[in-house]
Amino acid sequence: MTESKKEIDKRMEAGTATMLKHMLDLELRKVKEENDIDAVMFMGVDGRMFSSDIPVELTPQQYRLLNLVKAHLPHICGQLSAENLQISVQYYDEGTIVISGVGPNAFLVYLLARKVEFNDMEKMLANMEDASVVMRHLFELRPTSEEVLSTYSKKVAAEITDLSRRLFVERFDETPEYKKNMEILKFVKKKIQDTVGVGAVDEVLTFSFNELGTSAAYMNDDLWLKFMENVIQRIEVMSGDVAAQNFASTSRPEIQKKLKSFV
To answer: Which residues contact 130 (CB under 8 A, 6 or more apart)?
Structure first.
């Protein structure tokens, strides 16, 4: 039996702009919730907004803090691009603004509609700095290989791994691999139905996937070819040698052609 579904490394890198945006949003939401932050924005030094988590309805204090950021944005961007600003804490009557650099081209802005004493911010600032490292990893599309993860602290490496697993769970059905497998499954179902009838399709599929120890979503080309051999074996048991041979004679070349069409 081949590698089971449970043993597959269920991690995913942000291979598309949509997935990258989703991972950035996940990290912003987490750092916002864990540190009781009112709003957080991820921006470029050119003023572009890449991602944000801002309440739909702002309190007066939150609104004023947001306007302060907008008013000072050219100065903030200038500090980051020219002076390589790493982290800044600014106090106002309305609350606290923290700015954390994310590499040379981006930064995070945190809004807290309350005054937080600097001595009480040690843990929060540490979390914000970790978030900057995570965001830079995601933004620069770095791989989640063990070699790369080993260059980070254990906390940051664990967070990146967790994000990639959450992306796998939440967005796996949008990947080309998943869509390919669903198309192949649809094709195979039709071939089996034409041979043994609609009532026996589920039995043949269940047997064939159980022999592989996985499911359609996690298949690859080699597994599909092995799967077809299992299907042929099951059809032979259910419908005899002639039916199995007829199925094999057309299905083997057709499945190979189908798999190649996705390359």
So the answer is: 153, 155, 156, 159
